[in-house]
Fold this protein.
Amino acid sequence: MNQRIIYPNDDGGVSIIIPTLEYLAEHTIEELAAKDVPAGKPYKIVDVADIPTDRTFRNAWEYKE
Amino acid sequence: MPSIINATLTNGVAIQGDNSGALALQTNNGTTAVTIDTSQNVGIGETSPAGSAGYTQLVVRGSSGAELSLKGGTTQYGYVYVDNGGFRIINPQSGSASGTLQFSTSNTERMRITNDGLLQFNSGYGSVATAYGCRAWVNFNGTGTVAIRASGNVSSITDNGTGDYTVNFSTAMPDANYSSVASCSPSSGPVQRIVVMNFAAQSNTIVAPTTSACRFSTTGLAASADVEYVHFSAFR
């Protein structure tokens, strides 16, 4: 639960996948990315600490390669 | 005392054990097939069928599993068996009546698994009826560091932006015609927040649910908003 998956969404922003404990109990974060990241999208697995907690400008967040 | 076999006019044939009091039926030149001990516990393939105090036990033991087969005539049958695959109650019949598995109390049917796999029960319904269960649910905090409090059949939440979320199912729905329900509430204050189902706040568009995911937005009076308590469930 200390990891997140980020990918660029179709609206020009970034989407963040938050895994559930139940899923990670039986699968890896890589398996989750393969399942829940839209096909063809690049993605990164990041530490939760790397995600800003101030969401004031959440819609302006961008995905950087 | 040797073993004794008696036949009487009123009690049929009686087989008495030896001094130990137990009775063993043997096959294959000395292999004990059935044991009845002095407390009337019965073992088939089990020579020490001891039960808990006050309980009489029937034990069926095999080297890799055991099976109790119940048959009526030549077409009615069912099995209870155990092996390293688990403990199973099996009705191999396929008819709409004969293929059911039924559970009763007070001589009244309370629950049934139909031949095509529907679970039906009477738990205040008034009759035994099919129970349509919640197939997925999640409770999460949509503010700050978005965090999932608890879930069932949900692999993840996708945070698409302010008040814009996708619930991803661990096991997909059989089709996209499930009924989804969501609600939300802020942590304090009389602040109005509502949920718009099947809606992407970022693109302001309707997003049809799929078998694997459902998207919705939490919003205030004017714009989408993050909310502390968000609850989603899907029924099918």
Notes: Chain A is about 20% helix and 25% strand. Chain A has a mean pLDDT of 95.
